[in-house]
Specification:
By secondary structure, the chain is of the alpha/beta class. 30% of the residues lie in helices and 26% in strands. The radius of gyration is 25 Å and the shape is globular.
Amino acid sequence: MKETILILDFGSQYTQLIARRVRELNVYCEIHPFNNIPEITEDIKGVILSGSPFSVHDLEAPKPDLRLFEHLPLLGVCFGAQYIAANTGGSVVRSEIREYGRANLSFVDKGHPLTAGMSDNSQVWMSHGDTIKEIGEGYDLIASTSEVRVAGYAAKDRKLYGIQFHPEVYHSTEGLTLLRNFIVGICECEQSWTPASFVEETVAALKEQLGDDKVVLGLSGGVDSSVAAMLLHNAIGSNLHCVFVDNGLLRKNEFEDVLKGYEGLGLNVKGVDASQLFYDELAGKDDPEAKRKAIGKVFIDVFDKEAHNVQDVKWLGQGTIYPDVIESVSATGGPSATIKSHHNVGGLPDFMKLKVVEPLKALFKDEVRRVGAELGLPQSLLGRHPFPGPGLAIRILGEVTAEKVRILQEVDYIFINGLKNAGLYNDVWQAGVILLPVKSVGVMGDERTYEQAVALRAVSSTDGMTADWCHLPYDFLAKVSNDIINRVKGINRVTYDISSKPPATIEWE
């Protein structure tokens, strides 16, 4: 039995952050949509209700049956707190003064189990248009701000709580204290979900799931597919057949470097040059989704062909991780909006006749790295920046051609090696270059040029769900810009992207 915190998703942009904070406490959690509540088993130790874009007064607002959780500790956050209050004798009204952003508690009951250890004037993050005006009989007020009297409340006779602020957001400076109080103190979780326990449980589950079946897995050279491969390798050994495809959209020299890097790991790895197939399929396509789908189609075709070369293969292994899933299909089917599709997420065509195994689909990127370290993968691999599955295709705005790829590879090579040589690579979560579909006038020597522009992109992040642009030194940017313009024919202008996620995404397509 694995201790689990159930997070009920009402469509909040912060639902995934709740999961991240629970995981930081070494407690396993699962997100389920409000309209698909799982069976309440003995391993569920507590329930958290997320925020929501809805008002409790909206006719289409989520309306879960709270009686399902009567015997469990229950914590409502923002909308979750309002929903509990509205259904337990309290009242919720439209806010006269809406709170968005930072606020400070003017009162906190430091003697209550939920808010123990929190300090006076603690900073919290608010994001709500409704306000809990009154709480029902049998409830105590445990937190307030200067603008919102009911910022936190608790039932007198059961483990039922509501908080108007968002403890999962970093700007709530003592939010993790509150979540620890709920999960460890109130739900009595043992904090035993660690990278070591994940490896042990996952390998055992893979052995049971796969038995003596054969699996074909596409390696990319990145952290996700490599960790997935090692988990599968530990479970089924030589029955795992890895394929590393050169899609013509990799970084400069990456195909050869990655194959060399896998030497010594004990994996069955086959390199396949399919670059021309990808270029042919991408010809004439300039829409981002069309390009992603074209790349996904060719990946499927290549893997189908390679799978037929492995006798009796039954499974396709993938390095899908949690952000891939939630950005593609909305948090496990919940009401959040779809941002973009990922080529490695979703069903396979019927003709392929392979089942999918995804050992990492419940993990965030930083958790994948910790699992990789537990498996003994080298830091040189674990420390690599994330690289998109569609490769340079989504960093070339517009149609993809071999010549554009060549130009972008050269620029990217200068930028990434520049970061490494300057000792900045490990300070950046992800970096890359975007080839822009514009030309500009320049002067080189005594000649006028009319060539393309590129945008450098470097961000800091924890899990890819949110990201901020990196404040790279001006001297470094000046040197990189100069090197690119001098060394890469066809580029005469370099820009630097200072957009954060949200509202932008990390990639431009």
